[in-house]
């Protein structure tokens, strides 16, 4: 039997393939609800057993590290007050060169959490339609404010980490994150959003790794970013590169 492809059939197949591909690209990762609030202490309690691990395999800037130098994965849960994050980070050297949390914080070891509360995407470099929270080893949280200066947002994020006893180069880092409306400003901060089932949120996770150099050596993340003029370090500028999560009851 000979199969003949007409112009119309080829266009239809192309449309169907494109539709499936686009849906796959924009599909959101489901995040389960926790009935019990997570205690932020760097200890993985039983509630975390209900959440699957997600990888952090993508190079966002600098160079690819060796596995023993850095590897990471994470889990997410939520309740009506917080998005909870547990990250398992393997890093052979924890390095915090600059004591002031607002100076060159991206060049120290830190966990970077990207949050877009309504998954609207777009530029957030000097506004708070999204946040790029840099969480330092001393658990202080920094992002660029709408005045283009670094601000501490410890009232937005609660963070603690501990080393694993059997794997001393591995730490469990727990974080509770409040979400805020797009219209949040530093001069007129707004109350946190109450989280609800079926809420879609822009999310991405990254880790800045430095083993003692003058600047960051590795920057690895959870989502692949298409480069702009060769640059894949776009998360702190453009929330459209985040992935999406969907809160499920």
Structure in a nutshell:
The protein is mainly beta and 249 residues long.
Describe this structure in words.
- The longest helix is centred in the N-terminal third of the chain and has 20 residues, at 7-26.
- The strands form two sheets. Strands 1, 3, 6, 7, 8, 9, 12, 13 and 14 form a nine-stranded mixed beta sheet that branches. A five-stranded antiparallel beta sheet has the order 2-4-5-11-10, with no helix packed on it.
- It is mainly β.
- It is built from one helix and 14 strands, in the order H-E-E-E-E-E-E-E-E-E-E-E-E-E-E.
- It has one domain: Immunoglobulin-like (Sandwich), CATH 2.60.40.
- The model is unreliable at 1-26 (pLDDT under 50).
Tell me, briefly, the overall form.
globular
Spans of at least 5 consecutive residues with low confidence: 1-26
Considering DSSP H and I runs of 4 or more, what fraction of the residues is helical?
A: under 10%
Instruction: Tell me the name of the CATH class.
Output: Mainly Beta
Find the count of extended strands (DSSP E, 2+ residues).
14
**Average pLDDT score:** 90
- Reported by name, the CATH topology is Immunoglobulin-like
Individual helix count: 1
Beta-strand share of residues: 25-35%
- Count of all domains: 1
Q: What summary fits the major beta sheet? A: 9 strands, mixed
Round the Cα radius of gyration to an integer and report it. Answer: 20 Å
> Can you name the CATH architecture?
Sandwich
Q: Tell me the distance between the termini.
A: 51 Å
Helix and strand composition category: mainly beta
SSE order, as H and E? HEEEEEEEEEEEEEE
Oligomerization status of the protein chains: single chain
